Please model this.
Amino acid sequence: MQLLEGKKAAIFGVANDRSIAWAISEALHGAGAELAFTYAGEVLEKRVRPLAEGIGAHIILPCDVTKDEDIEKVFATLKQEWGGLDILVHAIAFANKEDLSQAYVRTNREGFHLAMDVSAYSLVALARHAVPLMEGRNGSILTMTYMGSEKVIPNYNVMGVAKAALEASVRYLAYDLGPQGVRVNAISAGPIRTLAAAGISGFKDMLHHVSERAPLKRNIDAEEVGKTALFLCSDLGSAITGEVMHVDAGYNIMGM
Ligand code: NAP
Model:
């Protein structure tokens, strides 16, 4: 029997086949899970639908996480189609481009709210809707974060602040939902070339810096995040909750 046989997983955050959410999807699907996908807008549907259908998914829905009505529709459909949910993957983040290049001190109220809403609050909203569907199923919720929450990474700026809120949310959600058997964890991944990463000024330098200084002397790939996601979302991680697990070739342990 496969690790995730009979399990249902909802994936938020696939933009294309380079998305971390896609690598996670492949790992979960490879372990036997049935997947549902959401996409943020019409343009993305063209990219997400063929990928999703290629691995047999039939629930593929629009969801802008800043819209409560979109979120409600997704979970109503999941309830109707599946009757329950075992795994929720949240791999979503957004900040205005200028907020990822100018000095952090210049972040305006609107840019701050937007980054927090899409990148941090959305986990809380999705978790709240997912939990009733996870009743009696030992559910698992997973989000994606980055070390810019803990240390200053030039240009990461407001996204670092949003990731700090996201990681704190992981702990508070783990505490809230633990009594219902639902686990909540985050993977803190090293830099990977994706659409979102392309928005961060100096991203190439980040890759170079990590490959020189990380204990493993290399960068990571999305497949390695997928394998860790499988571990955390399956019974292999049954006693792990509230954790932020680094998948970064060890970069975060370095002081000098
Ligand atoms: P990605 O492929 O661009 O995925 C980001 C996803 O967020 C996209 O599907 C994007 O859709 C979605 N999104 C943005 N605003 C949204 C909204 N309002 N509603 C719904 N979805 C929205 O990039 P990625 O690198 O795989 O990012 C996935 C997660 O991993 C993010 O949380 C990111 O911070 C995190 N992460 C990335 C790295 C890295 O180096 N790549 C490292 C550590 C952590 P649109 O394209 O339509 O905006």
Summary: Residues 8-253 form a domain with the Rossmann fold fold (CATH 3.40.50.720). The chain has one domain: 8-253. The pocket of NAP is lined by residues 13-15, 19-21, 40-41, 44, 63-66, 91-94, 118, 144-146, 189, 191-192, 194-197 (CB under 6 Å).
